[in-house]
Structure formats: C-alpha cells, structure tokens
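Internal tracking record. Fields below are filled automatically when a chain is submitted to the structure queue. Please do not edit lines marked as system-generated. If the sequence contains nonstandard residues, flag them in the REMARKS field before resubmitting.
Queue: standard
Priority: normal
Entity type: single polypeptide chain
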Amino acid sequence: MAKLPGILRLSNELLREILDHIEADPEKSVNIDRRAYLSVESFKPPSPPLPAQAQDVAHFRLACRRFGELGIPHQFTRVTTRFGRQGFRRLTDLAKHDGGKLAKHVKKFSYMVPCFYVEGRERIGELLQDLEDDLVTLDPGHFVRKANDQKEIVRSGEDIRALKKAMSAFTSLQHVQILRLQDTLDQDLLDVIRRNQAFATQFVELKWTPACIHSIRTVGKALLEAQSPFTRFSGPQMNPQSAIALKENLSQTFSSLVGKLTCLEIHFDDGFELDQKMKELSPVFRTVFMAAGNLQAIHIGFPSRTPLSIGLEEIFHGVRWERLRAFGVQAWRLDADEIVSLARRHRRTLRGLRLRDVLLKEGSMWKDILHILRAEMEVLDWVSLRRIGYSKDFDEMTNGTIEVSDLPEGVSDSDEEDGFPLHLSNGNGDEGNDDDDSDDEGEHDDDHGPEANRLALSPDLPILLPLCNCNQRPYPETPDDWGDSGINVGYRERKLWEKWVVGRCPQHSAS
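SYSTEM-GENERATED OUTPUT FOLLOWS
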C-alpha cells in the first residue's frame, strides 16, 4: 500500500493551525464583555481577506475532500452581502449550494445597503447634462442603471426573497450587522450635488432613512420567518426617523426577535432634533428592553457633537438585566445620579462600562461617580471614559457647531471591487482609523487634539495593570486627590481615572 504524502498524515488540528497562518480563523472573535468588541466585531465593516490569502485558501480546499471540508469555515463563517442584483444572486447561490452544506457554517451576516434615490428625484441624466460644472466627469448611464435596479429590486421583492432563503439556510447564525454603503462614484455624485445644491436637488436626492427602514424590515421579516438562532444585532448607522417609522411594526415583528438577543449595539447617526425623536421612541425602547431579558451587552450611542439631553431612564426605563456584562452609552448629557443608579443595578455582573462622550450637567462631578464605581462595582474589569467632560464646557467649546455624523460615510458599493474601503468622517472631511482609539500609555492626547473627533465608536483597548501594592500605588487614594475641577477633564486625568477605578487592591478592598 502506497504511503500517504507527509501533509496528508497531519492531524486536522495541525492543518487548521496551518490555515490559521494563511488567514486568521474567522471563528475566533472578541468576547462581548471586552473593550475591543465594539470596534472589532460590531461596528467595524467586514474586511475581506487579501486576494492572495483568499486564493491560497481556495487552492487548499481544492486539494482533496478532506482539505475542502477543513477550509469551509475560513470562507463562509462570515458572509457579506451588498444590496444589488449580483449580491442577491450570490446570496441565493450560497443558500442552496449542495443542500445548504456551506450555508450552515455562516455565523455572522453583514448586510451593506446604499442610500435610496427619492422617488421622482433620480433624474441623474438631466442633472449631469444641464449642469455647468467643469469638474463633472461622471457617466450618467451608471447612475441611471443603478437607480432603476434599486427601484426594481424593491418593487419585485427580489431582496426579501434572497434574504429569506439565506436566513433559513444559515442555521448557525449568531450575529447580524446592517451597514450603510457608499462607493466612490456615489461619493463623487454627492460632491456634485453639494457644490450645486440649489440647482441639483430638484433633479437628484439620495436618502439613508428609507434605505434604513427597508433593510430593517426585510431582514427582520427574514429572520422571523426562518426562526433564526441569531442573538446579536449591530447597527452603527441607524437613523432615528427609521426607528420611528418602524414603531407600528414592533409588536408584529421585532418583539418576537429581541427576546433571544444577548447583544444589542445601536448608534444613531442623525443629530437633528435628536431629543424630540428619542422622546418619541421612548415607548419603543421600553418594549424592547423589557422583552430582551437575556441581554449581556448593550451600547446606545449618538453623534458626538449633538449629545442627547433627555434622561437616561427615558431610554432604559429602570430595566435590570440579570446577565449584563458590558454597558455603554455615547454622547449624552447626564446627571451623576443617573449613571450611578444604572451601575448599581448591575454591580454584581457588570465587567465593562463605556461612558464615551458623556457630559455631566451642572451640579454633578466625575469624582463622585468614579468613587462609587470603585467602591461598589464587584467585578468591573474596565472603564472607558474617552472624551468625557462637563456640559457647560462642551457648549462653550463647540459654540453651536453641529456635526451631522461621526460615523463612516460608507463603504464601497461596487460589485466590481474586491475590497470595502472605509471612509471615516469627523464631519469635516477628515479620515481616521480604528487605531485612533487605542489606549496606549504614550503622551499623545487624542481626546482633545487633532484626533478628538474621529470615529467615536471604537472602544479603548485594555490597559494591563500591575497588581496593587498598597504602600507603593501610583494612584490617588481619595476623591479629593483626583484633580477633578468640575469644569473640564483633560487627557491625563481621564487616563488616570480609568486605571484608578479598576485598580483597587485585591487584598484590602471590599469584595
């Protein structure tokens, strides 16, 4: 009997290690109670493997049946679909391939949806023909075809049919993510519209709200009909108006889904009349949170430059989650008592607390909050205080300027492109990356310097702290030593406070 070649004698475990060196194991993910989870798993757009890596994995799977089986998770654990005919064809093919043999490995589904053309305002050809702009070199035919395809997909229900087939086939699905798309040509068109706004908007208008409403409705129906096992939902670019429009459908569709959720992360990207819209949504949040008794991680965020001003409990309604391990809010004007009350409800389970861009109202001080967190939270591992401050100081510094969105403008919507380039916007056209949020020990002040207003969703990375030595600790011992002026919070102060809160002595602090 012929001897097997060396590589065929290797165990499956070793072969998986080899594959992991070609491309990181997609089944390995960050735990939901870690700081990096929000940026790595929830709000970060999917990054495709490099072409060479994808080709190597494909070649590995073609070697033999055994290798083909071992390589499936590296190709199909995480699936991304773009709203478009080609995307829906691929999704349908995956769902029915070999009786769903590949689809059963899908654990994360990312749905990338472009802004929709407003009915009657998709006359791109007329706009570009009549426009007197020397910078315009766009092909009208591309946008006309795209607008027509978009309308026909919605009219015919092509998207919902593909989604239903996929969700039924994804029997191991855990995480659903909805993202906004915007390719380079779309960005060029929007630039043209902005430069010629008075003239252009009568011909062409693109809006995210109807696209957001439609995508949530169709994905929700598909998940419900498939009785999907998914437990995590991420929406980093949700529109408040879309949530208001969906309010009537909540009891029919989404209440049936939220009961199984363990992780819910939503960032609202439109700061216009934010307080009014969130007050209108308050009953919706109450219904959702009362039904979502299994939640282990929650993040609710708003645009950094238009922080929410309504009470914390107008959104959370005093709900206590028995298994909550990570809680986060972003861009909110709050009283100290509101933060303390919510933290105390979860003092025995909460391991991570994110208070990004939170501003204290007059009469509250950060030292009072942090002292209670340190003294009473029983299992807290980390606290993120990036860009915290005081409401009065914030108003004086911003001086009425408004940032429409502190989220990515979108990722590529072109079916011909291999990658999904991410454009991170701070509202001024600057670009950044997730590394801006790393929690290094350097002297660089990224809270108030040039990086301060970049992507505000990515959590700070963990700080590794040495064990306490009560006689040689580098941290202040009492709240009065913290340097809390009650006016503003500097970079050094907040870094020190993050360490102080979780740096209690394991031998002498109360358990």
